[in-house]
Amino acid sequence: MPVKVGIPRALLYYYYYPLWRTFFEELGAEVVLSSPSTKGVLTEGLKYAVDEVCLPVKLTFGHVLDLAGKVDLIFLPRLISVKKAEYICPKFLGLPDMIRRLAGIPPLIDVNIDRYKSNNDICLAVKEVGRLFTHNHFKIWLAYRRSLKVHRRYFRLLELGLMPAEALAVLKDRVKNEPLPEPEKITVALIGHPYNIHDPYVSMNIIGRLRTLGANVITAECLPEKTAGSYASRLPKKLFWTLGQRMMGAALYYLERPDLSGMIHVAAFGCGPDSMTGELIERRARTMGMPFLSLTLDEHTGEAGVITRLEAFLDMVSWKMAGTVGAIKSSS
Ligand code: SF4
Question: What CATH topology corresponds to 182-321?
Answer without folding.
Answer: Rossmann fold (3.40.50)
